[in-house]
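Hey all, sorry for the wall of text incoming. These are the two entities for the joint prediction.
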Amino acid sequence: MSLYVDEYPEEAKVIKATFLVSFVALGIGAFFGLIQGLHRTGFVRILPSTDYYTILTGHGVLLALVFTIFYLLGLFTWAVTRSLESPLPNIKLTWAWFGLTTTGATFAAIAIVAGLFPSLDMSADVLYTFYAPLQAHPLFYVGLAMFIIGTWMAGADWFLAFRKWRSEHPDERIPLQTFMVLTTMVMWYLSTLGVAISVVFFFIPWSLGFIDTINPLLTRTLFWYFGHPVVYFWLMPAYLLWYTVLPKLSGGRLFSDPLARVVFVLFLLLSTPVGIHHQYLDPGIAEGFKFIAMTNTMFLLLPSLLTAFTVVASMEHGARQRGGKGYLRWLGVLPWRDPAFTGMALAGLMFAAGGFSGMINAGMNINYLVHNTLWVPGHFHLTVGTAVALTMMAGAYWLVPQLTGRRLYSRPIGLFQVVTWFVGMVLMSNAMHRAGLLGIPRRTAEPQYQSFDFTATIGSVAELRAQIAIGAALLFLSVVLFLFNILLSSIEDPIEMPVDGRIPAPLSGASGSPVVLDNLKLWTAIAAILVILAYVIPLASIIRDAGLFGRTVAVPVLIDGFNLLLGVIA
Amino acid sequence: MEIHEYEKFWLAASLLLIVGIIATVTYGAVGVGVSMIDDKGGTIDPKAVDQHPKFGNPGVYKTGANEYDVYVVAKQFVYQPGTNEPIVVPANSTLTFHVTSADVIHGFEVVGTNANTMVIPGQIATFTVEVSGPREYGILCNEYCGAGHHGMEGTLKVVPEDEFNATAGGA
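and here's what came out:
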């Protein structure tokens, strides 16, 4: 038995590089989050409210796209090489996609942060959703395009590794981790088509002045065509860790390999034809299409509910291997002192809560009450902000030593860090959900208005603000502790075996499951058909109504907008 | 393929939950009559909103006994009417809102109610609500629309029937 870094030294270097980009983005994004949490609650204000949106855009892009996806690029590289027991076929290709994604992400970040310096005449405070006709600097869109193409190349790298493996192992089942990576990437190829078309064919030419007008509903629909599946692109690395690493950390093994495959196939099929559920309140889309998106969305609960079962069953199995007894007493013997385990377990718990608030969002009539209120960020700070982010941080405590050959600097600090994240998120997201029910909007620098107040039925608005501010402070503290812990780990002295990197075989293996589960071509074809059924008619209708390029002219952010604001106040 | 006993039970319960949720939403739409914002409002040239017969002079138009059309134009960072003067409607009436944007994407949320829609340039959002006794509501923009987004608000005033005057040109 040897460590990952000893077996795959070249891949370990790439993974360390992706994690470095990921964690730098995490640090900056979390700092922006702290500024926002304190600003909109009115506790500490270091910027004018007009700059709040630059910080908000940075927070969204750096955390939701850069932190999560760079972590995924590293994790998937680890998972493919580890489970195929073979290095990547062409390490130059690997470094090429790393270079392209990193350059793209840097370009987008420069365009955003430049918005804080008016003399630079560059800005991109169009938020993570970049809805037209608000217009960002071309560098922002070019950066996004490079980033997406880089992820496509990474997928190609993993598929090539798989093809090589398949030629050498024609009759074997696809190893589970590779199966998870490949199904996730097929989903990603299908779903990024929307945003790629939007950026390459509309936004880049439009921001460079080659076309004058844009169809806002079309580009918005193309954004959400990608904007919901991207959620699963964040979530799948967390699921990969829950299915393959968490059971081991619990002291046991995965409960069921076949069900894990079914879950990933369901995500591939159902996660793309649902984006219209972000557009329940959009004019210009018929009710029937919204209903179809809702039905798909609700069935998408199934793979997550199955995951909840399998993950808890695997943890229980682990606990019983460690001598756990009773209906619930087994919970006590789980390795709660291990930050990697505790972080993932708490993340899973929060995901259950986030799943329930997601069901509310997805119910298209109840959605009227919560649409675009603080309820929504309350929801996704539980899902991506905790289920994904906390799982990734916890996973790093177990993965980074395998990549560096050095032990984790401090397990107690790690444990304190994951618990701080949990507590901070309980306060912040609970308050956000409740504030949303009062009608307090999301994405606004000043949630106080001149001519009306929000009335709380339980507690008070002041108490909700305090919870959000305290939560934001705890979350930032947690990120700082995480980054220092990882940083100090990287300067520890190398040791023989800092962590046990083995993953035991599942309790029910793949051999008992139908071979059709491994037929990626079939699942890709069905997924594509579902996308066509859900999207072709609504897109055709949007284009027929307002034209491919629409009639709406660009509105540059900040400069003109700010003058207009002054006009309104005067 | 081996599926464990408890797993089967969980699978069945999950499917029941999913079908149950879809059933409640369907009942809401078919039984209670909660309809979605959809494409019935039609489209408009966002550069020529002021030439539209109603959006050119936005306000409250009487369309029948206790029935009114309310035309609102949203633009950075005001509602017309709503911001500089309140939207005034009579008590105990049925209001059909028609909202459009002259520039970017906005939101239109009557605070504390389920009257809530996206306002997309080129599209007209249409929805119908009922108001009862006199009361004042806040309106806010809940979709980021530029640097002054947080200042975009308005008021909806429900007044007694005898205090109400429809917008000139109304039926």
